[in-house]
Structure formats: structure tokens, C-alpha cells
Amino acid sequence: MWKLWLVTSFFVIVSTFAVADIVFLSDRDGRSNVYVMQDDGSAIRQLTNTPFSKGDLAWAPDGRQITYAPDLHSADHRQRQQVDIFLLNADGTGERNLTQHPALDAGASWSPDGKLLAFTSTRGEGWELYMMEIATRKVQQLTRLGFAVDPDWSPDGKHIAFEREGPRGRHIYTMNADGRNVRPLLRRPRQGQFGNSVIVSSFASWSPDGKYILYSEQEYVPNRWVADSILVVNKETRHPKVLDTPQGWKINTVCWADDGDAVLFAGVPKGFGNIYKIYKYRLSNGQLTNLTPHPSDNWGMDWTPYNSLAVSAREKLTTLWARLKAASRASFIPQTPVTASN
User: Fold this and answer.
1) Per residue in 283-320, pLDDT tens?
2) DSSP 8-state code for residue 259
3) Most exposed among 112, 130, 276, 307, judged by the fewest C-beta atoms under 10 Å?
4) Can you tell me whether residue 166 is helix, strand or coil?
């Protein structure tokens, strides 16, 4: 009877509380704040309520915490920027400043074990990459390249992708997690549509299986934006594939979703101004879904594989039970798949 009560209680919890898969930024309350939603755009909840501008969201590997980087002086334009990395529980509680440094600290990426953060900082000479041990706040410098920003840790913990200034623009590079063996992601920089183009590559994101790197690319000629693209690069062959997303759209942040089956991007359709929405692009069929049809800016998203429980109730519960069995050998967990009807 005790076992049955525990299982029944678990079903009540699953059906009552929505699980957040995507964290994102939105100005729907008049200023940028942190929100979460499920991977179909439902169950949106606001986590922060402060006047500061914010950026650089990242889920912890276990889905329980989020890092973000607010400018603590953004509410008073008379003061210089003061950007720090903050830690926030996934329910919006427990906010705390991790870096507390007079330099600018932003762009945090979690190590797969959740013990370390790679991040961007100006605490040395120029923008470089650093690593922090979260438990002790001990920081060490990873790069001395003149300009290196926005790291993203590989799922095996061995490599970090990042942005670096290079010939005619900014490009994606990779390195070992200790800062050694820096090399460009592509064998040769991509050429733009025009001879005097400048290419800016941003938001590098490793696929959940570690085989590909996703990023966005903006092309500029003097005084004019030309085009935005989303690229996926095979880590081994270093060969890029340009996704068949709508032409002429402005594209901001990009990241993986649905265990690598889809891509999220913040985009503005051609001719629609500067209000970004978050779209899901399914790689198998090119289906495009607007997850944030609200008349506000929505951007800066990150997806967590820990909380992703598929679409159907059957798949959600089966997946979650598998995770629970891996984490605990308690006797009440059944040894056969648990299913439920919608």
C-alpha cells in the first residue's frame, strides 16, 4: 500500500507542475527579465523582477540552476557598466552574485559535471576566457589571445568552443578545456556574398552528442547589414552546413533543442522591424514554430536536456522513470516502464 501511495503521489506531482525546458529573456513586463517555458512554448513563468538589463543565460547540467549576467548599473546611465555572473535556482529563488569583481564578467558556460564555469572577463588585458571553480570561487585564466569571448563547453568536458577576432571578422574556435590547442573550427574562413564583407560568427553551441557545433553568422559590408545564417559544423570533418532557414531574417541567439533534433533561434522575419521571437526549427523536416507569439522581444534562450521529457505523456513518464531509476534504487520504483494516458 505504501508503494502504491508513493507511485500515485508521483503521478499527481508530474501532472500538477510543468517542467521547464527553455530559459529565455523577454521584455514583456517592460524590462528584460528571465523567464522559463516548456519546449512547446507553454507554461511560461517569470523568474526575475529587477530593473537591470540581462544576458547570457545558461542552464546548469542538472537543470536545477541558471546563470545569467545582469548589468547592475543599467538603471543609471550615469554609471559605467558593471556586469557580473549571477546564479539563480530554476524556480527563481536563491539568487546570488558569483563573480563580484570590478571587471566585466559574462558569457558563462557550465562544465558537464556542474563544478566549473568557463566565462568571459575583462579582468586581465582585454576580453579573455577564464574558469571558475564554483565551490571555492577560485578563478584561473584560460586564454591570452587578445579577444576571446562566449565559451561553450563540450558534453565530454574536454573542449571549449568560443569566438575570436580573426581575418575580416569574428570566427568560432575550439580549444582544450585547459586553454591549450587553440584552432579555428573551419579549415578556412567562409567568404561572404561580397568581396569586402565582414563575417561575425556568434553563439557557438555543442550538440548534445558532441558531434556538431551550431552557431549563427552575420554578414556586413561597410555601413550595411547583408544577411544572417545558421550553420552546423561537423566536429571531425570541420565541414559547415548552412541550415535552410527563411532568407532575409535577422537572427540573434541560437542553441540546440530536443536532444539535437531541433534548433532554437531568436529571429525577426524580413521586413518586420526589430522585435525578436523565439522559433524552433526541426532539422528532420524544416518545420518552423514560433514559441513566443507575445508582442514583445524574446531572445537569449537556452535549452536543458535534463528537463526535456518529450511531447507525449507516455514518453515523458517513461523517460523520467528511467532517470529516477538511474539516480535511486528505492524499492517502490517499478521495474517495468510506467505509462499514462493523456
Assistant:
1) 999 999 999 999 999 999 999 977 543 333 333 333 33
2) G
3) 112
4) strand
Could you tell me if 85 and 78 are in contact, meaning their C-beta atoms sit under 8 angstroms apart?
A: no
C-alpha cell at 286: 524544416
Q: In whole angstroms, what is the distance from residue 130 CA to residue 243 CA?
A: 32
Cα–Cα distance for residue pair 242/245, rounded to 1 Å = 8
Q: Strand, helix or coil at 1?
A: coil
C-beta neighbour count of 161 within 10 angstroms:
24
Q: What is the pTM of this model?
A: 0.83
Q: Which residues pair with 130 in a beta bridge?
A: 119, 141
C-alpha cell at 168: 575580416
Using DSSP, state whether 65 is helix, strand or coil. strand
Contact between 300 and 24 (Cβ < 8 Å): yes
Residues in Cβ contact with 326 at an 8 Å cutoff, skipping those fewer than 6 apart: none
CA 288 – CA 277 distance, rounded (Å): 12
Residues 103 and 83: beta-carbon distance below 8 Å: no
Q: Is there a contact between 238 and 185 (Cβ–Cβ < 8 Å)? A: yes
Set of cell numbers at residue 288: 518552423
What's CA 279's distance to the chain center, in Å? 14
